[in-house]
UniProtKB/TrEMBL annotation:
<feature type="domain" description="Aminotransferase class V">
    <location>
        <begin position="5"/>
        <end position="75"/>
    </location>
</feature>
<dbReference type="InterPro" id="IPR000192">
    <property type="entry name" value="Aminotrans_V_dom"/>
</dbReference>
<dbReference type="InterPro" id="IPR015422">
    <property type="entry name" value="PyrdxlP-dep_Trfase_small"/>
</dbReference>
<keyword id="KW-0032">Aminotransferase</keyword>
<dbReference type="InterPro" id="IPR015424">
    <property type="entry name" value="PyrdxlP-dep_Trfase"/>
</dbReference>
<dbReference type="GO" id="GO:0008483">
    <property type="term" value="F:transaminase activity"/>
</dbReference>
<dbReference type="Pfam" id="PF00266">
    <property type="entry name" value="Aminotran_5"/>
</dbReference>
<protein>
    <submittedName>
        <fullName>Aminotransferase class-V</fullName>
    </submittedName>
</protein>
<keyword id="KW-0808">Transferase</keyword>
Amino acid sequence: MTVHSRARERTPTVLVTFAGHPPADAAAFLAARRVLAPTGSFYALEASKHLGLGAEGGLRIGLAPYNTAGEVQRLLTGLEDFLLA
């Protein structure tokens, strides 16, 4: 198998939504906990519309090689706290 990709050279990024929770609310909640996770369609409005997200889009989360274990834990704890609030 040959994988034609430069994924190892890139920052993994995901776009997520949470049923019943606007992405902007999640972003504000995380920002108060020093986690930057912006919202929107990120120049992919047609893809966002196709996914049923509209212009509101979703919450964008990216992790890079320089992120610390503490930062990742702060993100995960923040997401858990947001969903349990």
